[in-house]
């Protein structure tokens, strides 16, 4: 029997593809005539960088998400002039620009002026997930790059690591995404990392009485405190998915279920009745019938 992807992995791929399809005129195989090697070139470039540093997959995926979350998948995140998206506080520490630049350079040599950076970024995100053990999906292409520098987006519009679930729901609803989409997309943290400085407040004096965040598993708290000592500079990188940091899998949801979520917003998924059900569902899903059923139902919805 052919193994199917866990349901949430498939759903993540679907949401990312729908995210991409908000622009008009996109189609799979857009470059089949004008630049036949476009998708293969992007994949080989991502693979080269991935072999050197598997954590770059998370960087590329985050780059794509942050780009799409502002005003659509238009590569505006790549504009580096002052006051652009790159300078927005939530975009601090973004990685993967070199991967996109490398792919663009190679494609310009093959097909000058044909393949947009927006498409390269969307394709690279898909390939980064696949190389990490996650699913693949068809990426509709034909985007056009944003060339005008807009003002730095309001940081409050981005999901934040200390957001409550109601706040996150609203931010995702503003983008046309529901609670199930929210939990699914947060699952991309399965290959993510962050600095101690982002969550260190949870470890010490969280309640202003010297206590840590009570939602953290005590054994996991000790691990985090060892990695991020009180008074430290906060620069140490910590995996958001303990024991499975470079593999795109459901272990992230198991960690949240068990009180091992690194970010407060991640762990809060288990404190809300609606999101808790979704987390439990994903944490319990292996490969098999649920993934198969989702493939069938999703295919029907496009008949």
From TrEMBL:
<comment type="similarity">
    <text>Belongs to the peroxidase family. Ascorbate peroxidase subfamily.</text>
</comment>
<feature type="disulfide bond">
    <location>
        <begin position="35"/>
        <end position="111"/>
    </location>
</feature>
<dbReference type="InterPro" id="IPR033905">
    <property type="entry name" value="Secretory_peroxidase"/>
</dbReference>
<keyword id="KW-0560">Oxidoreductase</keyword>
<keyword id="KW-0575">Peroxidase</keyword>
<feature type="signal peptide">
    <location>
        <begin position="1"/>
        <end position="24"/>
    </location>
</feature>
<dbReference type="GO" id="GO:0020037">
    <property type="term" value="F:heme binding"/>
</dbReference>
<feature type="domain" description="Plant heme peroxidase family profile">
    <location>
        <begin position="25"/>
        <end position="303"/>
    </location>
</feature>
<dbReference type="GO" id="GO:0042744">
    <property type="term" value="P:hydrogen peroxide catabolic process"/>
</dbReference>
<feature type="binding site">
    <location>
        <position position="70"/>
    </location>
    <ligand>
        <name>Ca(2+) 1</name>
    </ligand>
</feature>
<dbReference type="Pfam" id="PF00141">
    <property type="entry name" value="peroxidase"/>
</dbReference>
<feature type="binding site">
    <location>
        <position position="85"/>
    </location>
    <ligand>
        <name>Ca(2+) 1</name>
    </ligand>
</feature>
<feature type="binding site">
    <location>
        <position position="76"/>
    </location>
    <ligand>
        <name>Ca(2+) 1</name>
    </ligand>
</feature>
<dbReference type="GO" id="GO:0006979">
    <property type="term" value="P:response to oxidative stress"/>
</dbReference>
<comment type="function">
    <text>Removal of H(2)O(2), oxidation of toxic reductants, biosynthesis and degradation of lignin, suberization, auxin catabolism, response to environmental stresses such as wounding, pathogen attack and oxidative stress. These functions might be dependent on each isozyme/isoform in each plant tissue.</text>
</comment>
<feature type="binding site">
    <location>
        <position position="159"/>
    </location>
    <ligand>
        <name>substrate</name>
    </ligand>
</feature>
<dbReference type="InterPro" id="IPR010255">
    <property type="entry name" value="Haem_peroxidase_sf"/>
</dbReference>
<feature type="disulfide bond">
    <location>
        <begin position="68"/>
        <end position="73"/>
    </location>
</feature>
<feature type="binding site">
    <location>
        <position position="241"/>
    </location>
    <ligand>
        <name>Ca(2+) 2</name>
    </ligand>
</feature>
<keyword id="KW-0349">Heme</keyword>
<feature type="binding site">
    <location>
        <position position="74"/>
    </location>
    <ligand>
        <name>Ca(2+) 1</name>
    </ligand>
</feature>
<dbReference type="GO" id="GO:0005576">
    <property type="term" value="C:extracellular region"/>
</dbReference>
<feature type="binding site">
    <location>
        <position position="190"/>
    </location>
    <ligand>
        <name>Ca(2+) 2</name>
    </ligand>
</feature>
<feature type="disulfide bond">
    <location>
        <begin position="196"/>
        <end position="228"/>
    </location>
</feature>
<keyword id="KW-0106">Calcium</keyword>
<keyword id="KW-0732">Signal</keyword>
<feature type="site" description="Transition state stabilizer">
    <location>
        <position position="62"/>
    </location>
</feature>
<keyword id="KW-0479">Metal-binding</keyword>
<keyword id="KW-0408">Iron</keyword>
<protein>
    <recommendedName>
        <fullName>Peroxidase</fullName>
        <ecNumber>1.11.1.7</ecNumber>
    </recommendedName>
</protein>
<keyword id="KW-0376">Hydrogen peroxide</keyword>
<keyword id="KW-1015">Disulfide bond</keyword>
<dbReference type="InterPro" id="IPR019793">
    <property type="entry name" value="Peroxidases_heam-ligand_BS"/>
</dbReference>
<keyword id="KW-0964">Secreted</keyword>
<dbReference type="InterPro" id="IPR000823">
    <property type="entry name" value="Peroxidase_pln"/>
</dbReference>
<feature type="binding site">
    <location>
        <position position="249"/>
    </location>
    <ligand>
        <name>Ca(2+) 2</name>
    </ligand>
</feature>
<feature type="binding site">
    <location>
        <position position="72"/>
    </location>
    <ligand>
        <name>Ca(2+) 1</name>
    </ligand>
</feature>
<dbReference type="GO" id="GO:0046872">
    <property type="term" value="F:metal ion binding"/>
</dbReference>
<feature type="binding site" description="axial binding residue">
    <location>
        <position position="189"/>
    </location>
    <ligand>
        <name>heme b</name>
    </ligand>
</feature>
<feature type="region of interest" description="Disordered">
    <location>
        <begin position="131"/>
        <end position="162"/>
    </location>
</feature>
<feature type="binding site">
    <location>
        <position position="67"/>
    </location>
    <ligand>
        <name>Ca(2+) 1</name>
    </ligand>
</feature>
<dbReference type="GO" id="GO:0140825">
    <property type="term" value="F:lactoperoxidase activity"/>
</dbReference>
């Amino acid at each position: 029997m052919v193994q199917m992807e866990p349901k949430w992995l498939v759903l993540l791929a679907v949401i990312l593809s729908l995210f991409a399809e908000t622009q008009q005129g996109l189609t799979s195989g857009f470059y089949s005539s004008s630049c036949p090697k476009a998708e293969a070139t992007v994949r080989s470039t991502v693979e080269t960088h991935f072999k050197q540093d598997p954590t770059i997959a998370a960087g590329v995926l985050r780059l794509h998400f942050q780009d799409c979350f502002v005003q659509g998948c238009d590569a505006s995140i790549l504009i580096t002039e002052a006051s652009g998206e790159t300078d927005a506080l939530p975009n601090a520490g973004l990685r993967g620009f070199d991967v996109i630049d490398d792919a663009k350079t190679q494609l310009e040599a093959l097909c000058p002026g044909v393949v947009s950076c927006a498409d390269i970024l969307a394709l690279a995100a898909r390939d980064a997930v696949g190389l990490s053990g996650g699913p693949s999906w068809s990426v509709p292409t034909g985007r056009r790059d944003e060339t005008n520098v807009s003002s730095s987006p309001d940081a409050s519009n981005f999901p934040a690591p200390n957001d409550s679930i109601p706040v996150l729901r609203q931010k995702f609803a503003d983008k046309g995404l529901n609670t199930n989409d929210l939990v699914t997309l947060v699952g991309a943290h399965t290959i993510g990392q962050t600095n101690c400085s982002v969550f260190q407040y949870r470890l010490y004096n969280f309640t202003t009485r010297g206590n840590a965040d009570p939602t953290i598993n005590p054994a996991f708290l000790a691990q985090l405190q060892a990695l991020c000592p009180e008074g430290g500079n906060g620069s140490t990188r910590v995996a958001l998915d303990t024991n499975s940091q470079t593999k795109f899998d459901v272990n992230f949801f198991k960690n949240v279920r068990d009180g091992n979520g690194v970010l407060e917003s991640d762990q809060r998924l288990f404190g809300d009745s609606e999101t808790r059900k979704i987390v439990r569902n994903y944490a319990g899903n292996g490969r098999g019938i649920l993934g198969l059923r989702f493939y069938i139902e999703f295919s029907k919805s496009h008949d």
